[in-house]
What does this fold into?
Amino acid sequence: MFHESTPARTALLIDGDNINAKHAEAILAAAPTGQVARVYVDAAHVQNWRHLAAFEIIHSGQHKNASDILLALDALELALTGGYNYFTLVSSDTDFTHLARRLRKYRCTVNGLGNRDSSGRLGQAFDRFAELPCEDAPLASITATSLDEKIRTVIAMGSRKARGILFTSLGAKMLRTHKITLADIPDPTWRTYVTKRPNLYEVDPPSRGAYIRFLKDGFRANSSE
It folds into this structure.
């Protein structure tokens, strides 16, 4: 997609905290990797990218916006001291409009890849912006799987008065009880996974004190009883 007449010194930089690793094949098909193909991610919590040999993983840690900041710093360093003048930035975060405009100011070609919802807000900052394949539609009627049954068990064991459990404890409880980690689920985070299943779970907005509950009716609807 972006391969026409690209120079030798190209960089592919991916916001791994924002983009799911399942898009890796589409990203490689759309963008030249050149000498640099990096994913910036909190590798301790988002592990799917770690299994893809095509990319160098840059571990950003857990601090807010750490991946964004590292990606921006590296992009500017590559442009100003490394001689790179062709970039593909992969993110749906509109904060990257500032980076794209700055790189273009330095006479770099800057293409973007992101989701459909962000294309209108991000597109004008890039030389070209392409949409990644659509995410799966919201799974409002998804059938409970064995993984969901395990999540329900963990919530039921720790819930008091149907309040549920602290969302921040879900990963640790799943590891301790069922030996399941983020690497074993199809989404990059637990929150992404459960919020795709609104008929099975109710999740408080992100905060340190957020709780998660399972919905009895949702699981009952998937029961063979």
